[in-house]
Amino acid sequence: MNEKKIIVACKGHDLISIDEIEAFQGNLKRITKQNLEKLKSRIKKSFDVPFFIWERPDGVRKILDGHSRRKALIELREEGWEIPPLPYDLIEAENEKDARQKLLGITSQYGEFEIEELSEWMKDFNEENEIDFRLVNGKEIEFVKIKDEDIKNIKENLKESEIKEYKKVHVLLSMNQDIFFENQNIFKQLKKIEGLEYEQSQN
Amino acid sequence: MSSPKTNNSYLKEKIILRLLNLPEKENIKVLDCYHGNGEIWRNIKNISDKNIEIDGIDLKEYSDSFSLIGENTKILKSIDINKYDVIDLDAYGVPDLQIEIIKQKAKKEIIVFYTFINSVMGRLPFNLLKKIGFSENMLKKASMIFSRHQHNKFLFFLSCLNIKGIVNWIEFNNKKYYGVFKINPE
């Protein structure tokens, strides 16, 4: 019995072989080698989330969400893992342009989470803390234009300080008139102490 | 519905400060604790050649950004912050509690970007003032006195948390400070 078989732990509209689906994303979202290995490790435990697929009028099925998982599954198959038919859900789109917009909405470059990463996030959270997850699609923004003179300006105005050991004594003296002169004498003595910082109210 | 306090004035300056102080490595993971609409780091991703992954946290939902919704102090206490190379505290106010949590939990070097806004009529957070040695009694009697030279006191606060090294910052109108420092484990 082949122990290297992917366990499917989710349901979808139907099942599909990874050979029947095509990439749609191109290089829109890259996955680093390190993250791909992490993803493969997760998938080896189970395949948790269905693919989102757009079916073209000619019947060709394109992935809208799940490119990284497909890549990971192909590598796992090359490593001897058996990949069963996997769940998918269909996303409706009128045409390729509509499908591309939906793709950007799902896997926006602004949304650094893929659904796989989101599930990893959820494992890290303490159940006692109430944390609400909401996935909101990113809209396009107008990027700021940075010129060399902007960078030069910042470098020139950048201040620097070493974080020094902090040894101070804080003293609050009363400005009460009845003890004012007595306090002034105390104050004169305190001022002679090295390392003493004082602040006097103007009031 | 009232909108949350946000402060994306000096956006360009914040972006440049971060670009100049990114870690050397190629792949960077960022935790943006006041993510808002993600404008700062989206711009940085657009400019930088590095592969930057951003996880965002915000108290409010923004329709044009992805965020985890929740209080960042709760989330910081709950997650493994050592996954991150950079933690961004672009606060509206003083992110003293957040810095304390990060320092307590850090097991590796983490670059922290902060925003510190002087409150002209207000006072520094009691937590910060107590950390640098002001007593409860003093603060009850005259907290406004001890809230002068606020950014200096913020630097003292970092020292009291045993954070060492250099702080770099840019200052605007003696009120807004945008800076960066590194937190290293004990």
SSE blueprint:
The complex is a heterodimer of chains A (203) and B (186).
Chain A: E1 14-16, E2 21-22, H1 33-45, E3 51-55, E4 61-65, H2 67-78, E5 86-90, H3 96-106, H4 115-124, E6 132-134, H5 148-157, E7 159-162, H6 180-191
Parallel strand pairs in A: 2-4, 3-5
Antiparallel strand pairs in A: 1-5, 3-4
Chain B: H1 11-20, E1 27-32, H2 39-47, E2 51-58, E3 67-69, H3 72-78, E4 86-89, H4 96-105, E5 110-117, H5 126-131, H6 136-142, H7 150-160, E6 166-172, E7 176-183
Parallel strand pairs in B: 1-2, 1-4, 2-3, 4-5
Antiparallel strand pairs in B: 5-7, 6-7
Helix pairs in contact in B: 1-2, 3-4
Folded structure, characterized:
The complex is a heterodimer of chains A (203) and B (186). Helices cover 33% and strands 13% of the residues of chain A. By secondary structure, chain A is α/β, with parallel strands linked by helices. The longest helix of chain A is centred in the first third of the chain and has 13 residues. The radius of gyration of chain A is 31 Å and the shape is elongated. Chain A starts with 13 loop residues before the first strand and ends in a 12-residue tail after the last helix. Chain B has 186 residues and is an alpha/beta fold. Chain B has seven helices and seven strands. Chain B has a seven-stranded mixed sheet with strand order 3-2-1-4-5-7-6. The longest helix of chain B has 11 residues. The N terminus of chain B is likely disordered. Chains A and B meet through strand 6, helix 5 and strand 7 of A and helix 1, helix 2, strand 2, strand 3 and helix 3 of B.
